[in-house]
Amino acid sequence: MAQDMDLSVAAQEILRPHNGENATPSQVSGSRGLLAKLNHLQEASLCRAAARLSAFLEDLTPFLFVLSYFVVSVSLYIVLPDSIITIFWFVFLATNFYIAASVVTEAFLSVAPCRDARKAVCRIQERGWVFPTADDQLYTLDIVIVAYLPNEKDIIIDRTLYALNEIIYPRDKLRINIVYNTPKPIEPLETELFNLTEKYSNLRVIKVQNSTSKADNLNHFFTINTGSDVMAIFDTDHYPHPYGPRWAMERFHSNKKIDIVQGRCIVLNAGDSLLAGMIAVEFDKIYAVSHPGRAAMWGFGLFCGSNGYWRTDLLREHKMDGEMLTEDIDSALRAFKKGCVAVHELNAVSYELAPITLASFWKQRLRWAQGWAQASTKHVVLTWNKAHEGRRRSFVMRFGVLSLLLIRELSYYLVTQYTCLVFSLVVLHFPKTPAGLGRLVFFQYPLSEWLFIISITSLFATLWITYRVKSEFITLKMFVVFTIFYPIYLVFMATMGLYGHARQVDYLLGLRGLLVLESFLWIFLQTFVPAVVKGADSTTGRTYQVILRKTLSVLFWNENLLYSFFIILSARTICISFIARSTKTEVAGAVFRRALRLWFPVALSLAITYAVFSATGIAYIDEYKRISGNSSFETPYQIPNALAYFNSVFD
To answer: Where is the Glycosyltransferase 2-like domain (predicted)?
Structure first.
């Protein structure tokens, strides 16, 4: 905005008439300088506009990909024969049954850790809160509170004073470290923070210059030799329970092989909104049930980003990967790769704030979804690669990693595909009564009835166990609301996972992604609504279809335009390499590599097409053309042998 005002002022200065008839040389020179400034500002304004357009396209394409995913899925289920639908129905129910069975098994396995945690609290209460380890034998603890001040400037002082005054731990063995970054000075807040170090000798405040992330802040702190035995990482919005750090340290003292202790996170503001209440129940399910249950089931725990305690030597060597969106999950999986032992301590409690608006929730979970996709892609090799030297990775642990990384990511597609299948059935056979809807969706086949009943029973069993270990801020009403909306919540979270996957595919963001979507639109509309497609044989249709063909079709689903753009993109790909290194070898290599890169997706797509048409035949396509009168597309050619397939790929 300020630069736009400078542009206006410069233009007015150039256009302002001079007092004399003839301008002096200095006036002419000044006008030229202003004109140069005007040109520079115009170029800067155009660059900003182009950057905004590019950012808009990059944000738009994932949304369009997910939207087209649902449209295509529902459309396919509508046109597929009943025999194929039956197969999909049982596949989705069976896989969803596996997921439900895994979740309820984890829930039942979490009962023992929860019971042990309660017994431990009762024993300590009976002893007047005297813990097994003497104060003078405790490890030295560094609590690291990581902050980004523009976002957390209103709470940083409060959280700092809370940590200094409320945490019950020997003062000579506890240090509070505020590690923050800010793009611009924030006064008098920063001065107030540093002044606190004069009052509290165990407080250290560190401003990390040129930092752009939590990982940068932590990695800078890891370069400082503080002399501590254990480091605990907290986000700024957390309130650690006064005895939380002590419980975590007792776990380290109880077993010298433990490298990481992850505490339980509880939502503090559960009553602020309906969404916050649902997140609070979800957090209880995750931290009090799923995490300890999974650790018991698969034999490994995970660091979850905040309220996590590491042995200092390990963490300083380990560091955080700033290239990862969720550096916490990445660090946890890298620790697992090394064979580090991570455990979950349910009594090491910390309270945090949940998003109270849908916009903030979407932003948070979208980053988590994309980060999990990134970490899963990077670390899924832990399922089959060799264990770290001197460490053992059992088959159970490997299958646990497979379930955590690959199956969990695939579950987004299973949940959404089942949703699309159900929606297509409702569209085709719209029920007249609620009972008819229930029979259509859940009770079409005897086996599916049992799978559905077992899955629902597993869900209620998991929620019942969660309710038994709920935090103090959760009410029965919140649990009822969570149970009612849980199926919708699952679909919403699965959709968000798909969105995260779409954002993770960088090469399809922007223009290339739009071209892919436009290609889909061209094929889809030419098949089902040919009258809206420019160049289609069938041109008769309703008025709105004719209008769309003459307006939007020219730009958004135009066959000739799509071919032209793909040729331009291929030429650009080849030219970029040539411009970087202008040699004959380079341009020849770029052309050769481009051909191979195109061959693999074409070969895979053609193989899938061949398999589908071999299984279903093509008679229904001719039947559809006859009934609809649509002559705008050809019936696919069936490849007779491997040689024809090979020639088709390179054609």
So the answer is: 252-428
